[in-house]
């Protein structure tokens, strides 16, 4: 979602009088709720039928739609909401060939944030990327809560590092012992640390205590964004937290294992360092999986805590 915001920004700049409506799930709405380039956010409530959502959208009288998801649900909306719709190429063939054979059909590396512009241009909208990063706008209440959280956990007066040890899939997770070793090195250098993520990441974040305060599952999306905004640097895997950090302007050290740049999801910002290893088995999956197909997980295990520490110090120098 946050990678759509450069397109939103460009559309608003090019067509300031247009009404831009963003459609998403209710749980994800906080990521765009305070975006000033949008006129409205329409959220799909838990359990709400797609037909009901389509009726709400049709009542707005849309003159055009951009499908930036390419899912079954968005395909259903395209059928049910009658207006011209346009999408973009997800490069599924090139992705599948690269995973299966390691033959690269992608050609030029185009980030997904820029691929989304294909949908707008195919609909006759003359917009181009402006080179700026994603934008995650935060409410004042979220910033205040993050400031309070930092004070309560005695993290003031020290440079703050955010750690995001969780990931939806095992093969995207840096080994736990690497996280602990990195946290120890950061503490020795005077950094304060907070671990973030969703409720499902709580156990991974628990492993870093007492070296890092644990905010995983304890903060909302907006509050997590506000914690990231207070940090000198964030260290993450290939996850949503990485894009949240770029959206609030925080430098990122990103650890990439099973996925590669061709897929388009590297940090969309100049303030980032990607740590990865050139292995013949990469990429093994477009999204990660429950186990390493080779049994060694070297794509992430070969990245050491000193590698991450050096990247941190270079970014915050």
Total of helices: 12
What sequence of helices (H) and strands (E) makes up the elements? HEEHEHEHHHEHEHEHEHEEHH
Low-confidence stretches: none
Biggest sheet layout: 6 strands, parallel
Radius of gyration: 20 Å
Q: Can you tag this structure with a few keywords?
A:
single chain; 317 residues; alpha/beta; Rossmann fold; 2 domains; six-stranded parallel sheet; globular
Textual characterization of the structure:
The chain is α/β, with parallel strands linked by helices and 317 residues long. Helix content is 36%, strand content 12%. The protein is built from twelve helices and ten strands. The strands form three sheets. It has a six-stranded parallel β-sheet with strand order 7-6-5-8-9-10, with helices on both faces. Strands 1-2 form a two-stranded parallel ribbon. A two-stranded parallel sheet has the order 3-4. Strand 8 (233-237), helix 10 and strand 9 form a beta-alpha-beta unit. The chain is globular and about 60 Å long. It starts with a helix and ends with a helix.
